[in-house]
Design brief:
- Keywords: 2Fe-2S, Iron, Iron-sulfur, Metal-binding, Oxidoreductase.
- It holds the Pfam family Rieske.
- It comes from Aspergillus sclerotiicarbonarius (strain CBS 121057 / IBT 28362).
- GO terms for molecular function: 2 iron, 2 sulfur cluster binding; metal ion binding; oxidoreductase activity.
- By secondary structure, the protein is of the alpha+beta class.
- The protein contains nine helices and 15 strands.
- 34% of the residues lie in helices and 19% in strands.
- α3 crosses α7.
- The longest helix is centred in the N-terminal third of the chain and has 36 residues.
- It starts with a helix and ends with a helix.
- Among the domains are: 124 residues, Rieske [2Fe-2S] iron-sulphur domain (Rieske Iron-sulfur Protein, 3-layer Sandwich), CATH 2.102.10; 128 residues, Naphthalene 1,2-dioxygenase Alpha Subunit, Chain A, domain 1 (Alpha-Beta Complex), CATH 3.90.380.
Length: 423
């Protein structure tokens, strides 16, 4: 009897389960279908496809980058204001300064700069223009002098940028030498020797962030005791941002350097594993690279000159034993490979500059640059004018006007002599 009752009750839960299954299937079908459709659309948008002639069939999202990203003078001028006038930039290493008075000259996006080492061991940065008539102070790429003079009218400055000599101005009422020193630039040297500058004219700026770079240097024994072995700057006809797409612009992994007897003996006795080459990028245009067990490292900078010209500079350093012929061979190899890579990039740039459909890869440094430009552009729209953080406001008062008139009088005295003294 019990078995018969169970048999009669069994169809009820079975029927309920079957009905519930049909209900869930019918209810969930539109949700699953909508999810799959959305997934397919997103995957099509993210896939890099070839540009088709019929843009109506294109499903990719319109690029945020302007079509003339690589060649526009307007974009470059905005970069000068938004990046090179207010961001920290690596320029060189402390080991390139050996004694007080040593200086190195640079030009970033048309802005002349020089660094000089003082007697106190501090590397300072200044705009490379005389306060008198804005003529160049240091003409050479590098040199050494405790007194830095402009040959236009003989104004001279010390390594702290202070005006120490101003012919014809001693008797000008109210002329103050202390108010006419070189325009200083924010500069800092990390404990591992990397020298950074920031051209922002504000008295105080946010400190540079160098923890990743200092960690990189510590792992490889890089410090202020490194030795500069040589370097070279090569001008390339391409936009500076193109060089940022590569983590290692020149491939030197295949270059095999002979190991010293000490390294061979040390690796055998202590079973030291070989050091691997490592790279690190520092915004906006510098990269640093180690060369395995060679006790060598080098910096590579893509310094902008204009929207279509870039100065590519490499500097080779030793952070351990003296390398002798090994460093000479490496320097020649770096120079050769750099020239080859620049030539290839120039050819590539020619094709990109005439192709408005070329879209930068948003995953590399291009996106960071674009975001900074957008932010600065927004600031300028709110201000109603271009914002150039590196610009110094001129003084306008009675004393300034008297000094200005004297300058004009001196300019007119002897044209021939003035031209012979001009840099």
């Amino acid at each position: 009897m019990i078995m018969e009752r169970l048999a009669l009750l069994a169809p009820v839960p079975v029927a309920l389960l079957v009905g519930l299954a049909f209900f869930l299937q019918a209810f969930s079908r539109p949700l699953l279908g909508g999810h799959k459709s959305q997934h397919r659309t997103e995957s099509k948008e993210s896939e890099p496809g070839s540009v088709q002639g019929d843009h109506e069939n294109a499903v990719s999202k319109e690029s945020d980058f302007p079509q003339d990203w690589w060649t526009s003078s307007n974009v470059f001028e905005l970069e000068r204001r938004a990046i090179f006038s207010k961001k920290w930039m690596y320029l060189t290493h402390r080991s390139r300064f050996s004694k007080a008075g040593d200086y190195h000259s640079f030009e970033v996006a048309g802005i002349p700069i020089f660094l000089v080492l003082g007697k106190d061991g501090i590397v300072r940065a200044f705009h490379n223009v005389c306060r008198h008539r804005a003529y160049t102070i240091t003409r050479k790429e590098c040199g050494s002098s405790m007194v830095l003079g402009c040959r236009y009218h003989g104004w001279s400055y010390n390594t702290h940028g202070q005006l120490i000599k101003a012919p014809h101005f001693d008797n000008v009422q109210g002329f103050d030498k202390s108010q006419n020193g070189l325009f200083s630039i924010h500069a800092t040297t990390t404990h591992t020797g990397f020298v950074f500058v920031n051209l922002d004219a504000c008295p105080a700026v946010i400190p540079v962030e160098t923890i990743p770079l200092d960690s990189f240097a510590s792992r490889h024994g890089i410090g202020q005791q490194s030795t500069w072995l040589g370097g070279q700057a090569i001008e390339g006809q391409f936009n500076w941002k193109l060089g940022l797409r590569f983590q290692r612009f020149i491939d030197i992994h295949e270059h095999k350097l002979p190991q010293t007897k000490y390294k061979v003996l040390s690796s055998r006795l202590f079973n030291h594993p070989p050091m691997c080459a490592e790279d690190i990028r520092v915004f906006p245009f510098a990269t640093f690279h180690t060369i395995g067990d060679a006790a060598l490292w080098y910096s590579l900078s893509f310094v902008p000159m204009s929207e279509t010209r870039t100065s590519v500079r490499f500097d080779l350093y030793s952070h351990g034993e003296r390398c002798g012929l090994r460093s000479s061979a490496m320097q020649d190899d770096l120079s050769s490979r750099l020239n080859t890579s620049i030539q290839a990039l120039e050819i590539e740039f020619q094709s990109y500059s005439g192709n408005p459909m070329y879209v930068p890869n948003p995953r590399d440094a291009q996106r960071a640059i674009l975001d900074i430009l957008k932010s600065h552009s927004k600031l300028e729209k709110q201000t109603g004018a271009e914002v150039f953080p590196a610009t110094r406001k001129p003084r306008r008062n009675a004393r300034f006007e008297r000094a200005e008139q004297l300058c004009k009088d001196l300019d007119c005295q002897d044209t021939w002599n003035r031209k012979s003294l001009a840099w």
